[in-house]
Amino acid sequence: MGGLAILLLVFSVACSNGSKEAEGTKTNTPAENNNQTLIIYNGQHKEASKALEKAFTEKTGIKVESREGSSNELAHQIVEEGGKSPADIIYTEETTPLIMLKEKGLLEKASDAALANIQKQYADPDGQWLPVVARSRVVVYNPSMVKESDLPKSLYDFLKPEWKNKFAFVPTSGAFQQQLSAMIKLEGRDKAKAYLEGLKKYGKVYKGNKDVLNAVEKGEIGIGFINNYYWDKLAKEKGAGNLHSKLYFFGTNDIGDMLSFSGAAILKSSQHKEAAQKFMEFMTSKEGQQIVTDLSAQYPVNPNVTNKNLKPFSELKPPAGTMDLGEYGDGKEANKLLEEVGLL
């Protein structure tokens, strides 16, 4: 082969490789993806998850098999399975299990396209897990029993004689326990224990967040501590004007307005990384985020998506320092305190 021909061949190959690099992940047609099946370990709300998976399959042709369980159980299952895990993605109710999996070196970095879809301050600094939706701790109250102007400016201010038997809480709730873990981290164990003792002394224990909301709605009790989506879903169903309760936000960066996030990550052991990246990009896209926020009444993390039925995300004033709870993220210390105080 002549020198000119060799140069032309080398140039052609180089151009071809450069073109592939510029394109990034290849986008197959739905027909080309028919034989692919993603396995997702899912600890999130089933209705919204199923709708998201269905829309993704219709758009890409990639099938999705979802295996449900609690987020912590699924994360520990992945640790046990190690490199042989069949899961491609884990989708969790909170970010703590994802932080644990990252620390064990089991996660893959998300694509730049997925990272570009979200508010990065809520994502893993290394891009190994992404937030999907957020929810806020709130106070729900019955305005026929309690005036909004009488509600305090801090969650801790409920621990006073004037509020005795006027508020309900759920110590077995995962969100309650995560909030308690944040208290331990931010305020110390002694203050967190005093908080629990105050709740036990002045509040009423309920079995579930829906039970609390129903009790406030019926006027059985004036105030309850829940996550926003319980009330927001009911308001969407019946109309906010038809409810007997309202939401109250402290608006003071108080622990009572704590945000927590559902999140997702690709496993390093995934056999379908390209398809998994596509799913992550879809779930953080405008289309995917709209599906999840509309059905779950949780806040989207894509800044271009809104939910007109929720208080604007930009108006929330949560406390700082609660994204990564560090050594308290597994909830063990919170459970110890609950047991010591007699609430578990």
TrEMBL record:
GO terms for biological process: iron ion transport; transmembrane transport. Gene3D superfamilies: Periplasmic binding protein-like II (3.40.190.10). GO terms for molecular function: metal ion binding. It comes from the Bacteria. Coiled coil: none annotated. InterPro entries: Ferric-bd, SBP_1_CS. One of its GO terms (cellular component) is outer membrane-bounded periplasmic space. Fe cation binds at residues 45, 93, 229-230. It holds the Pfam family SBP_bac_6. Transmembrane segments: none annotated. The keyword Iron applies. Keywords: Ion transport, Iron, Iron transport, Metal-binding, Signal, Transport. PANTHER family: IRON-UTILIZATION PERIPLASMIC PROTEIN, THIAMINE-BINDING PERIPLASMIC PROTEIN-RELATED. Belongs to the bacterial solute-binding protein 1 family. This is Putative major ferric iron-binding protein. It comes from Aneurinibacillus aneurinilyticus ATCC 12856.
